Amino acid sequence: MLENLTALNLALLGLAMFSSGFIDAIAGGGGLIQTPAMLLSFPDRNPVSVVATSKTAAFFGTSTAAIQYRKSIKTDPKLLIAMVIPAFIGASFGALLASHISPGSYKSSIFAIMIAIFIYTLVKPDLGKAHVEKHSPRKLMVIGAIAASLIGFYDGLIGPGTGTMLMIALVAIMGFAFVGASAIAKVVNATTNLASIIVIGFRIGFMWKLGLLLAIANLIGGYLGSHMAIRKGSGFIRIFYLIVTGLLILRLGYSLYIE
Question: What is the reported pTM?
Answer without folding.
Answer: 0.79
